[in-house]
Design a protein that fits this description.
By secondary structure, the chain is of the alpha+beta class. It contains 15 helices and 20 strands. The protein has 3 domains: 226 residues, FAD/NAD(P)-binding domain (3-Layer(bba) Sandwich), CATH 3.50.50; 102 residues, 2-Layer Sandwich (D-Amino Acid Oxidase, Chain A, domain 2); 57 residues, no CATH class. Strands 3, 4, 5, 6, 12, 13, 14, 15 and 16 form a 9-stranded mixed sheet that branches. A 6-stranded mixed sheet has the order 7-2-1-11-18-17, covered by helices on one side. Strands 8-9-10 form a 3-stranded antiparallel sheet, with no helix packed on it. A hairpin with a 2-residue loop joins β17 and β18. α1 runs parallel beside α9 and α13 runs antiparallel to α14. The mean pLDDT is 92.
C-alpha cells in the first residue's frame, strides 16, 4: 500500500464504481475509497437507472437475478389536486427488449452488486494484488503540489497517486478544498429527497401495478403531492416493495416552515396514493440531498492537474419533466473520467491540459448537451403555474368531463373554459404553452 497508485477514486457510488471498472479493465493500479462499511451502505437513494451504460459495464446483466429489481416498461405522469389525479400514461412492449432503457434499483443493493463486478475485474487484471476497494475510510484532504493533485490524506495516513477522481455527493468538502467550487451550493438550488420503502407480498404488488415478470413502473407526481412546496413526487416499483417519496425545494421548505415528513404523510393520505399503498408495510425511511438541475451550480471547471470531478460531486442532475436523471449521468461521467486517466497514463502526462480531455468529453456527451438544451424545462417545472395551477385545472376539468349526470352534457370546450377561468387564464396558459414548446 506504500506504492504510488495510478489513480485514487474517492466515493464508491455509481460514478466511482463505473470509473473503477474502466480502470481495472485497462490494467491501471487504483484505490477506490468508500467511507461506509461497504459500497452502498451509506447510499439511501434509489430509483431508475436510465440508458444502456450498465450493459457496457456488465454485459448481459439482465441474465443475473441480482443488483437490479425491475425494468421499466410503464411510464406515468400524474397531476394532482387535493382529491383527484389526472395522468398521462404510456406502456409499451418495446421496452421489454434488452438492453433495457431503464432499470429500477435500490442503491444499497445495487452498489454492493456492482462493487462485486469491479472486484471481479480487479482479479482479472494485471494488478489483482495491488488495486483495492477500501471501505471505512474518510478522506479529509486532497494532497496538492504545485496546483496538481498527488494523493489523499485520511487521518494521519497519506496515499499518493498520479491522479484523483472525486466522486462523492452534493456539497462535498473536497471539491471546495481544491478550489473548484467556491462556496456551498445555495439553498434555492438544493432539493431534499425523502423516501419510504413500502413492502408488499410480491403477487399483490404485481397485481396492483399490472406487472408481469420483472417489468416495472415509474410514476412521477406534480401538484398536491408537495402540499404547495416546490418539488414533486415519485413512485417506483421494486421487486417486492415500492419506493414512494418526494423531492422538495430546501429554500421553499424553510420559508414555508414545513417539515418534509409531514408533507410526505399528507401525500400518502391522498385518495389515489392511499389506494396504491393499502396493506403495505413501511420498512425503511430515508432522506437525501440533491441538486436542482440548474446548470449554474455546476462548477465551471471540473478538472485540475491530476484531478477530475464527476457524478453528484459535479452537480450533474436534471429533471426535464420526462424523467429524473442522475444515476445515468453519474455512470457516464465516471466512465469518461476513467477514460481520461487511461489516456493520460499512456503518455505519463497527468497535467491540467491532459485532464481537460475529460471536460471536453463531458461537454460533448449527452449529459451536458441535455443539461444545456433543457434548462428552460428545468425552470418551467419549478414555476408555480406548473406545480399548482395546471394540476388543479386539469383535475377540475377531468371531474367534469368524466362525470355522467342525468342532465344535458356540456361540450368539452365549455368544461375546459370553466376550469381555466377558475384556476388561471388562457393568456397565462398560452405563455406556459409557448415556454413548454420551446423548452421541450
Amino acid at each position: 500500500m506504500d506504492e504510488k497508485f495510478d489513480c485514487i477514486i474517492v466515493g464508491a457510488g455509481v460514478a466511482g464504481l463505473a470509473a473503477a471498472m474502466i480502470l481495472a479493465r485497462n490494467n491501471l493500479k487504483f484505490l477506490l475509497i468508500e467511507k461506509g462499511d461497504f459500497p452502498g451502505s451509506k447510499n439511501v437513494s434509489g430509483g431508475v437507472l436510465w440508458g444502456s451504460d450498465l450493459a457496457k459495464l456488465v454485459p448481459n446483466y439482465w441474465d443475473e437475478d441480482a443488483g437490479w429489481d425491475r425494468f421499466i416498461n410503464h411510464r406515468r405522469l400524474t397531476f394532482m389536486d387535493n382529491q383527484s389525479a389526472f395522468s398521462v400514461d404510456f406502456k409499451s412492449s418495446h421496452f421489454n427488449e434488452t438492453p433495457y432503457t431503464g432499470v429500477v434499483v435500490l442503491r444499497s443493493k445495487f452498489d454492493r452488486w456492482l462493487a462485486g463486478k469491479v472486484q471481479e475485474a480487479i482479479d482479472a487484471s494485471e494488478y489483482a494484488m495491488d488495486s483495492f476497494i477500501a471501505p471505512n475510510i474518510l478522506v479529509e484532504e486532497i494532497l496538492m503540489e504545485n496546483g496538481n493533485a498527488v494523493g489523499i490524506r485520511t487521518g494521519e495516513d497519506r496515499f499518493y497517486s498520479d491522479s484523483v477522481i472525486i466522486a462523492e455527493g452534493v456539497n462535498n468538502l473536497l471539491t471546495r478544498q481544491v478550489g473548484l467550487q467556491d462556496t456551498y451550493v445555495p439553498a434555492d438550488h438544493i432539493l431534499t429527497g425523502i423516501k419510504e420503502i413500502i413492502r408488499f407480498d410480491e403477487r399483490v404488488l404485481e397485481d396492483r401495478f399490472q406487472l408481469n415478470g420483472r417489468s416495472g413502473m415509474s410514476n412521477e407526481f406534480v401538484g398536491f403531492s408537495t402540499d404547495g412546496v416546490e418539488g414533486g413526487g415519485f413512485l417506483y416499483t421494486n421487486k417486492n416493495t415500492i419506493s414512494l417519496g418526494l423531492v422538495l425545494g430546501l429554500k421553499d421548505l424553510r420559508e414555508k416552515e414545513k417539515a418534509p415528513y409531514d408533507i410526505l404523510n399528507t401525500f400518502k393520505q391522498h385518495p389515489v396514493i392511499s389506494d396504491m399503498i393499502r396493506g403495505g408495510e413501511v420498512v425503511e425511511y430515508s432522506a437525501h440531498v440533491v441538486s436542482s438541475g440548474d446548470k449554474r451550480i455546476i462548477p465551471k471547471r471540473l478538472c485540475k492537474g491530476g484531478l477530475l470531478v464527476c457524478g453528484e460531486a459535479a452537480n450533474l442532475l436534471m429533471n426535464s419533466g420526462k424523467a429524473i436523471q442522475g444515476m445515468d449521468y453519474a455512470m457516464r461521467s465516471g466512465i469518461l473520467a476513467a477514460e481520461a486517466i487511461v489516456n493520460a497514463k499512456k503518455t505519463s502526462d497527468f497535467g491540467e491540459a491532459s485532464m481537460q480531455r475529460y471536460q471536453a468529453a463531458l461537454e460533448d456527451s449527452y449529459i451536458m448537451k441535455d443539461i444545456n438544451n433543457f434548462q428552460d424545462a428545468v425552470h418551467l417545472l419549478h414555476d408555480p403555474v406548473m406545480t399548482q395551477k395546471v394540476p388543479n385545472l386539469l383535475c377540475d376539468f377531468g371531474r367534469n368531463f368524466f362525470s355522467i349526470k342525468n342532465e344535458p352534457t356540456r361540450k368539452a370546450r365549455q368544461m375546459l373554459g370553466e376550469s381555466v377561468k377558475k384556476y388561471s387564464s388562457y393568456w397565462e396558459l398560452m405563455k406556459v404553452g409557448v415556454k413548454g414548446a420551446k423548452a421541450l
